[in-house]
Automatic annotation (TrEMBL), chain A:
PANTHER family assigned: CYTOCHROME C OXIDASE SUBUNIT 1
Keyword annotations: Electron transport, Heme, Iron, Membrane, Metal-binding, Respiratory chain, Transmembrane, Transmembrane helix, Transport
PROSITE patterns given in the database record: COX1, COX1_CUB
Membrane topology label: Multi-pass membrane protein
Domain Cytochrome oxidase subunit I profile: 32-543
Organism, scientific name: Methylobacterium terrae
Record's protein name: Cytochrome c oxidase subunit I
Residues annotated as transmembrane: 48-72, 92-119, 131-151, 171-197, 218-240, 260-283, 295-316, 328-346, 367-391, 397-424, 436-458, 478-502
One annotated GO biological process: respiratory electron transport chain
Molecular function terms from GO: cytochrome-c oxidase activity; heme binding
Length: 558, 228
């Protein structure tokens, strides 16, 4: 099936196939055409596209339910939906967005696509396992989705006991089974990345020549491996309690409900860094490319990734400040939570220092990256508020928390995801999108995001609790503002879905390296050939070897 | 051996070539073997964390409620647990024998050792099943609504007993998976040419088997032995 030369003649060519394959040999997109060649592929690049399609679909479901939640909150008396419907809606939003979009988003798509290319490998270490992890992901995700759509779940994405085990009369068990299954997909992906990064680097690609994207994915994979089994066992215990009355969390069965929170947050706090670290990797690739300047403090950025991945395991207790844990534990978790700010700030300072005196090009990926830095700083600083014991008492479980984690998780993951999508789109598809549209989408999303979530900080500070849809009328103005912002955000999300898809058929052909970027992935054709490299790549002496090395050289990028 | 055997056959009597088939995306066989070993260790790390949550909870429970946990732990069948420990360590020994013979390229002996390993694993499960039955007889299954729980005045003991069932059945599930893989692999390995293509599968599976053993070695003191 490796057709692809001009001798095939136009008669054999599918009219929807881009011209780029003619005379180019077989790139990975056109090496084979059958449906079977997509659904049974072991090519990491095709698997990445399978993930991209599926998580985009889940994102749409999560976004639509978010829109409905915001619609319900336009009026203070809760007349739009019944209590039950509202609870089920925010649960679908949370479950789908956290478990099936944010956590797999960057690692499963860009990680899969880029890690072998970036380290000069022909594929991931275990290609069949990689395909299996997509099937595991889809099985679990569709299972949960079916249960939340057919029967509904009203526990929120956190499945807190005793609500989830004793009181909620909804389809909790099938939803939990699906989430448990999806966890295995994370573990398999993380395992594949760790082994690949350890064993498959091209000659000369030492650890300190690796792109930061690879470093952050290494750190993320360690979290996948070390934290995911703990949530698996927590969910298994929850299923055992609900289905077989093997009580571990319900006091009536001798259990302890706070135990669930310990096990849950031991995974779910590190999971925040599963979402944020890959985003940081994306930003660390975009910023040097669009400043045409070496990444400032490369080693510190790499260490900060591992540092974040380590510290994040010791802060789970800050979710339980008001749940009756000992004062000593609360103080310890508070102090440790402050420590997270250090490696986070290291990264932000390094990106800013990279931008400083760079020859800046404000193209779409860079606009997204700068938006990301702004939102991450605001989300990070409000994290310090929440880590402070006294303030936490005041804003616990209010919209302040909702705003904070949306700034970190959506600002941190979605903006980086979209930035990365625009940055590597030419590489993935071999096509350029229309730049002006890209810039508009970046602006719309940044503005829409802030209009949506900034009012929620104020709402939470004034005392509006999360997960309620009946609220005092004086909060209505800020809620309307937030809902209005979400429509701007929605328009911003629809834009890329239109012009990126348009570009697949009608976009300009992309050169191998449209951004003058450094890294192995830009040395191969766009889209890359099926086996990544025709000749074995040779690693440069320094990573991010951009034209501007130091301000003294005076060399400017054209 | 028959009189007509050639010298070559005498030298390699009953032996197969040992090796690993290179998969196309690796550069060398060494790289491929390294990746496989690292992959299994990474998986085992997640398995350790899976059980660690349960063991840690049981240990914390022992510290907070020593009397209640002791009362419950006294109902566990120490001698069955101890025998099972010996049985599993024995199975690790036979698995090591199978690995050693696979390195030597001796498929018949290897297959026998693998069958012995599977048999010991099954013996463990049978003993475990008998232990569960004895628990049932002693009213130590608090999740059964029709059997009043023996220590009903002690909720912490109930949590401990529940953790015991979750941890041991999760371990049993791993053992069943291990035995299934072992039997399938034994069937594959009994055909000629297996060792010349897939010797490292035996090595990798050996890691998994030893690890199930190790998990039990952690479970046994945590559940049965401590402050008994």
């Amino acid at each position: 099936m490796t057709s692809g030369t001009i001798t095939d003649g136009p008669a054999l060519r599918d009219p929807h196939t881009p011209d780029s394959r003619i005379g180019h040999g077989a790139d990975y997109l056109h090496a084979e055409h059958t449906l079977r060649s997509w659904f049974f592929t072991t090519d990491h690049k095709r698997i990445a596209l399978l993930y991209l399609a599926s998580i985009t679909a889940f994102f749409v479901i999560g976004a639509v339910t978010a829109g409905l939640v915001r619609l319900a909150l336009v009026v203070p008396d809760g007349q739009v939906f019944t209590n039950d419907t509202y609870n089920k809606l925010f649960t679908i939003h949370g479950v789908v967005m956290v478990w099936f979009f944010l956590i797999p988003s960057i690692p499963a798509t860009f990680g899969n696509f880029l890690i072998p290319l970036m380290i000069g490998a022909r594929d991931l270490a275990f290609p069949k396992l990689n395909l299996a992890s997509w099937y595991v992901f889809m099985t679990g995700a569709l299972f949960t989705l079916a249960s939340v759509v057919l029967g509904g779940v009203d526990t929120g994405w956190t499945f807190y006991t005793p609500l989830s085990t004793a009181f909620s009369n909804t389809w909790v068990v099938p939803a939990l089974i699906g989430v448990t299954i999806v966890g295995f997909s994370s573990i398999l992906t993380g395992l594949n990345f760790v082994v690949t990064i350890h064993t498959m680097r091209a000659p000369g690609m030492t650890w300190f020549r690796l792109p930061i994207f690879v470093w952050t994915h290494y750190a993320t994979s360690l979290i996948f491996l070390l934290a995911t089994p703990v949530i698996t066992v927590a969910l298994v215990l929850l299923i055992a309690e609900r289905a077989f009355h093997i009580g571990v969390f319900d006091p009536a069965y001798g259990g302890d409900p706070v135990l669930f929170q310990h096990l849950f947050w031991f995974y779910s706090h590190p999971a925040v860094y599963i979402m944020v670290l890959p985003g940081m990797g994306v930003i660390s690739e975009i910023v040097p490319a669009f400043a045409q300047k070496k990444l400032f403090g490369y080693k510190f950025v790499a260490y900060a990734a591992i540092g974040l991945a380590s510290v994040t395991f010791f802060v789970w207790g800050h979710h339980m400040f008001v749940n009756g844990q000992s004062d000593f534990a609360s103080v310890a978790f508070s102090v440790l939570s402050f420590a997270v700010a250090v490696p986070s700030a290291v990264k932000v300072y390094n990106w800013t220092a990279t931008i400083h005196k760079g020859s800046l090009k404000l193209d779409t990926p860079m606009l997204y990256a700068m938006g990301y830095i702004g939102l991450f700083v605001l989300g990070g600083l409000t994290g310090l508020y929440l880590a402070t014991l006294a303030i936490n008492q005041h804003v616990h479980a209010t919209y302040f928390v909702v705003a904070h984690f949306h700034y970190i998780m959506v600002g941190g993951t979605v903006l980086a995801f979209l930035g990365g999508l625009h940055f590597w789109w030419p590489k993935i598809t071999g096509r350029m999108y229309i730049e002006a549209w890209g810039r508009i989408s970046a602006f719309l999303i940044f503005i829409g995001f802030n209009v949506t979530f900034f009012p929620q900080f104020i709402l939470g500070y004034l005392g509006m609790p999360r997960r309620y849809h009946v609220y005092p009328p004086e909060f209505q103005f800020l809620n309307i503002l937030s809902s209005a912002g979400s429509t701007i955000l929605a328009v911003g999300y629809i834009f890329p879905m239109v012009y990126l898809v348009y570009s697949i058929w009608f976009g300009k052909r992309a050169p191998a390296n449209p951004w003058d970027a450094r890294g192995f992935e830009w040395t191969v054709a766009s889209p890359p050939p099926a086996h990544n490299f025709v000749t074995e790549p040779v690693a440069p002496k320094v990573p991010y070897d951009y034209p501007i090395q130091a301000k003294e050289t005076g060399r400017q990028h054209s | 051996m028959s009189a007509g055997a050639t010298d070559a056959a005498v030298a390699g009597e009953g032996r197969d070539a040992v090796g690993v088939k290179l998969v196309s995306h690796f550069a060398t066989v060494e790289q491929q073997k390294h990746a496989a070993v690292l992959g299994m260790w990474a998986w085992l790390l997640t398995e350790l964390l899976l059980f660690a949550g349960l063991f840690l909870t049981a240990l914390v429970l022992r510290i907070i409620h020593p009397e209640a946990v002791q009362a419950a732990a006294r109902h566990l069948k120490f001698w069955i647990g101890a025998t099972n420990t010996v049985v599993l360590i024995g199975s690790s020994l036979t698995m090591s024998g199978a690995i050693q013979l696979s390195r030597l390229g001796w498929p018949r002996g290897m297959v026998r050792f693998m069958l012995a390993t599977a048999a010991l694993g099954t013996l463990f499960l049978l003993l475990k099943g008998y232990e569960y039955y004895a628990d049932y007889q002693e009213h130590m299954m608090p999740f059964l609504s029709d059997r009043p729980y023996e220590l009903k005045d002690s909720p912490p003991s109930r949590l401990f007993v529940n953790l015991y069932y979750v941890a041991t059945s999760l371990h049993g599930l791993h053992l069943m998976t291990g035995i299934t893989i072992l039997l399938v692999m034994t069937w594959q390995a009994s055909r000629p040419g297996f060792l010349s293509l897939h010797q490292n599968r035996i090595e990798i599976f050996g890691l998994y088997w030893h690890f199930i053993d190790l998990i039990w070695i952690l479970a046994f003191p945590t559940l049965y032995v401590l402050n008994r």
